[in-house]
Each structure stands twice: as structure tokens, then as C-alpha cells.
Amino acid sequence: MPAAQPELGEAVAAAEAELEEADFLARLRRSDPSLWPGDTEIADRLGWLPVVATMRGRATELNEWAAEVQGTLPHSVLLGMGGSSLGPEVLRQTFDTDRPDVTDTTHPDAVRASEHTDALYVVASKSGGTLETRSHEAYFWERTGGDPSRFAAITDPGTDLESTARERGYRRVFQNPPDIGGRYSVLSYFGLVAAALAGIDIEALLGTIRDDDQGPEIHGGAALGAALGGLGRIGRDKVTIVAEGRFASFGLWAEQLLAESTGKGGKGLVPVAGEQLGEPDVYGSDRVFVHLRSDGSHDGAMHRLAEAGHPVLTREISDPHELANEFLQWEVATAAAGMLLGLNPFDQPNVAESKANTNHVLEEWEASGALPDPGADSLDDVLGAIAPGGYVAIMAYVDPTEPNEERFRPVRTAIRDRYQVATTFGFGPRFLHSTGQLHKGGPQVGCFIQVVDPDPGDLPIPGKPFGFGTLIQAQAIGDRQALRSRGRPVARVTPDELESLSAAGR
């Protein structure tokens, strides 16, 4: 910790002592649910640590299966949301491969772009009933003429998806251990099937997770959790992830892990990923920077931040296979931070609300032929509500392309520099399965800007009276209703209106 900020070091030291006194690591290895308050889902959500050993035993078989698939279907597309898609996307980008393509949006243009005549479609859903994923499945099943050799499924035992996949004779059904929550599932079949299809050596990937005589070596994760939890308790709760080089996408996965695990009961660590680095004076006293250092390209910026008194936590990573170890360390860190913050890091009590709202909006559309307009705050009102210690979330219901993300990046920078608050960005509906829990259940300090494609077009969903264009609009409305019901300021703008913010210096 910076010498000028001794209270930061004291906060971390106190958190480390608390974890040691609680015998955190030993109890975590024993899957002891009493580490966290309440009993909702905890005992049934601790399988993410022992699954590493299980998957090591299946590494060769997974790679052989993927090689056999590639022999006839050179492309692959993963259909999933949240915990089923974010890990695979980070693996794909880190290893710089074009497979599997990850489809985790309901924007018609993106769904249409995922069509291939020589692709395996992997339907991934823990619950087996995710609306977006089952809609994707229905669409591509029809487009492939119902060819079961073009489909595989990953799901928990006994789900509707498993039943459908077995009845239709899918090429493969991967039954995942049911005691793993979605956001902790990257080292199970949900992440490793995609890794195998990407051509990644699963044995080498999992081999970077070091073992001691009691299981995976997880002390580094506990140390990170002590820092994040300890600093979060004194107001340094905007966890700004700075990942270098080929690891630049890591924050996409870490966002969900931190936000959905800690953003509840009016508390929460706010993950900030993909924000352009600035000079130290544009940041408030609520920041902590986690530097995933691989090529040293951000050393100068990190040094300046530390000299200015901001806490900087540096984690070295070089070999892309080390991503597996990093995933596990962050899972341990999040579990530890949850204990320190006095919350259950394995439930997501507010996620279902936007889903329920979406269903009601769609029912209204079916009855009347029109989507409701629940209203929204003006953009000026939302900007006027920004306060120190808060954050601004830009939620883009547009085609999730890299050009679109780059298009809005200057807006994030302009807002951060003008108001000196953290900014986050997410494509909808992906973020509903990620940071959406924090938006509704976390601290009442967020200001929200919905960016909605004024004309997304449409694409039929087989078996549904509505198409993907109607669905994505209904999801935006449903989420806006959920935010407004909690008194969260939320504006609705078009992409052009949002872009004008940076030009106007607002």
C-alpha cells in the first residue's frame, strides 16, 4: 500500500487477520457453508473448488472429443448467457482464436451473424430454461433443419434442456455438477468444453493451478480477497481492473463474478473493466486498481497512481494457460471478500426481477400489439444525480460489436473526467446476467443510461409469437422498470444521443 495512505495497509492487514482467525482456507476446502451469513444456496454452491480435480481427469477425453468434432464441423458457436458465456469469451480472446463464436445477445443482427453451414451449436444453460438461450436454440435448430449432429448441450442434471437434448439425440450432452453456480463455473464443463473447441490443451490449462497436499494452492486468492474486502469496507469499493496485452478481456468475466456475488443488500464491490486509463487526479478516493501485468505496458500509469495514493494490487501473468489459475484465485478472492463484507456471495436475489418484468412486457405486447413505455428520467436529471463515490453504468441494447464498444468509449472517459466517478459499460441483455444484480441490489449510488437501438429490426423465434427484435426491446423496458422501482435514476437515449455527450463535454 502507498506510504502516504497507512490506513489502506491497516484495512488490508485487519482483513487478513480476520480471514486467518476464521480459518477461512481450511473451512473453504471443507466446503463449510457457515463462513457466510444465511443458508440460501450456499451448501449447494461450493463445488467449484473440487471440480478442478474432476476436470483434470476428463481433460484428454474433452480434447479428443473436440478434435473429432472439428474434423466435420470446423466452426462452433456457444449459445449461453452470463456464467455460461463470459468465461468462454475470455478464453477465446486470450488465446486469440475465432472459435467458439459466443452468442449471448438477442439483437437480431448478432443472432443472424452466428449462422454457419458448418458449425456445431453448443447450448449452455445451468437452469436449462434461460429465455435467451432457449430462443437461440429454437432458431438454430430450425435453421439447421433439425440436425442433431450439429448440437451439443451443457446443463445441470434433470433440466428441460437435458430432456430436449436427449430426446433429439444431440451429438453430446455434458451433465455439469449441480453444486456450482453459473459465475463460478468456468473451470467446469461450462468453460472447458469451449476451451477444448478452441483448441486449448485442457491438461496444460488446468496444470497451471498448483497443488499442495490439501488441494489447489489458493492462498493468493485469499490475499486478493482480503485486499478487496478490507479496502471495500473503508470505501475503496470501485475495483478497477487493468489487464494488459492478450489478457485485456479478463474484466469481462471478473465483472460478473464480483458484481453478482457482492452486489446485494445495499452493499457491493463495483467492478470497473475496460475504462480508459487517465491521470491520477481524475479518480476519486473510492478506487482500488488491480493490475494484471503481462507485458509491462501499464507500468508507468500504475506507478503514477500508486504515488498519488491509490491502492494498486499487481498480479503477474504471462502464459495464457495461467488463465485457469487466475480464474480460481479470483473465485477464492470473491468468496473471501463476501465473508468480510458479511454477505452471501452465492445467491443473486434481484436477478429474477428483470426477467419477470420482461415476461410481463411480452404478455402486454401479445395482448395489445404494442410495447409499453414505462418512462425514464431525462438525461440531464441522471447526470445531475451523479455524486462523489457513485458510478455511471452505460447499458447498451445494441449489436455487441467491437466498433460499437469503441464508439461509446469516449463517452465513458468524458463522464469520468467531468464528474470524477467510475464508469461501467455492458451490452444488453448480457449484463442482466452479470452486473445487473449489482445495479438493483447494490449500493444506491449508481446512475444509469440505457442506450437503445431505435430500430433493431426483427428475426422470428420459432414457437414464439414475438421475434428477437421485440425481445431485446422488452428486456430493455423490463430492466428500466426494475431500476425505476428502486429509485435508481435511469435515462433512455439513442446511440447518437449518447455519442453527443463526449462532443458536448458533459
Protein model, in words:
This protein has 506 residues and is α/β, with parallel strands linked by helices. It folds into three domains: 6-30 and 217-341, Glucose-6-phosphate isomerase like protein, domain 1 (Rossmann fold, 3-Layer(aba) Sandwich); 51-206, Glucose-6-phosphate isomerase like protein, domain 1 (Rossmann fold, 3-Layer(aba) Sandwich); 351-504, 3-Layer(aba) Sandwich (Rossmann fold). Helix content is 44%, strand content 14%. It is built from 20 helices and 15 strands. The strands form four sheets. The protein has a five-stranded parallel β-sheet, with helices on both faces. The two termini are 34 Å apart.
Q: First CA to last CA: what distance?
A: 34 Å
How would you describe the shape? globular
Helix content: 40-55%
What fraction of the residues are assigned to beta strands by DSSP? 5-15%
Report the CATH superfamily of the largest domain.
Answer: Glucose-6-phosphate isomerase like protein, domain 1
